[in-house]
Amino acid sequence: MPDTPDTPAAGKRRPALQRGLYFEEFDLSALYQHRPGRTVTEADNVFFTTMTMNTQALHLDAAWSAAQPFGERLVNSMFTLSTMVGSSVAQLTQGTIVANLGFSAVTFPHPLHHGDTLYSETIVTDKRLSTSRSGQGIVTLEHTGRNQHGVVVGTAVRAVLVWCLGAAQ
User: Could you tell me which residue ranges the MaoC-like domain spans (predicted)?
Assistant: First the structure.
């Protein structure tokens, strides 16, 4: 495409950095939907479970799990939590987070199965400027994970410390 007054010459373009949101940009009225979803495979579950040294037969032993109430192995709930939070990073906290402050109210109301697709979304339930760290604010996020049928498979409330606009280093 030839250069015109509206198209800068090669090498003259302004970089557009992918990042999360600064404190002021978090919107308490928004529903942040994180896409694409993540289809969870048996390999994902076995790898995550063994990598984290979780020897729970419910995640690893198909024969034993077949005789349990769900009749099959279940996806490790820590994988569910990690994927719910991880899927939010690019949209919410990539490069703007100072620290993850903690989790509360983590629930897994329905199991995630091999072959299920996990879709995550986040709402902001609170935000306030930090009283001890100038140029930073605390944002409370409520993450929800749903399977491909819309069934809630996990929830978590998370507090994060993020930079304010113009204060990031």
Answer: 32-145
